[in-house]
Amino acid sequence: MDGHQLVDQVDKKGFVWHAEEWIHNNKFHQHQKAQLVFVESGYQYLHTKNSRFLLPQNHAAWIPSNLPHKTTSASESVSLRTLYFSTREMSDFYNDLYLFSVPVVLREMIMYTEKWSLNRIYNQSEQTFLHAILEELPSFIQNSIPLITPVPKSTNLLVMTDYIHQSYTSSITIEELAEKSFVSVRTLERQFKKETGITIAKYIQMVRIIKSLELLSDGNFNIGEIALQTGYSSAQSYSNVFAKLLGKRPSEYFQSFK
């Protein structure tokens, strides 16, 4: 029996699975149970049919019941703390996908559940504790941060976004992208906004900030080095964009979760 079958065959409303060396399944799958996945260390990508999300250290994703998804990671090792819930009797809030930074109180609650990891036997204390997490989830998600790189549908835009992911360390202009796509700047911008909901400039910013979060998570580089490695001319310009998108300076970002 694989892990996905195990999750749904456990006859409990809440189920816990902690793994210090998570093995990623590169195929789309889904669970009848909803899933709260917390990245304790490392980072991973969460893919749905239409979007790709980065989950850095100290972040979590709420994946609703029966949503097809898969995970990938470029991090050498990823420690995941995963909780599964039956949400049949819960409000519509729990039917949507969320990404959010995890406050200290929720992190401590998640870590406490390790004592029940892979426990298939009913335990009243476990179920009461997990239900408390589930009930409080809306308040924890209120300040969620959208680390989303949408996936367009048109072939020319897919080629363009692949180019951005490969070339984010250098200067990228919309004029250059339009020339590579053999369309006018105006046409390219209109098509991209229609298919993804954001501008090309915002997309480039998000790619660079997401890449910088990977480097911040690794902890091997200072702010100036990260700025240069992600296409910014200075630490100040990088810090300004970071703060605009995420509400904190890079130096403050992970400190707030310690």
Automatic annotation (TrEMBL):
Gene3D superfamilies: Homeodomain-like, Jelly Rolls. It holds the Pfam family AraC_binding. Keywords: DNA-binding, Transcription, Transcription regulation. InterPro entries: AraC-bd (IPR003313), Homeodomain-like_sf (IPR009057), HTH-like (IPR037923), HTH_AraC (IPR018060), RmlC-like_jellyroll (IPR014710). Residues 158-256 form the HTH araC/xylS-type domain. It comes from the Bacteria. GO terms for molecular function: DNA-binding transcription factor activity; sequence-specific DNA binding. This is AraC family transcriptional regulator. It comes from Myroides indicus.
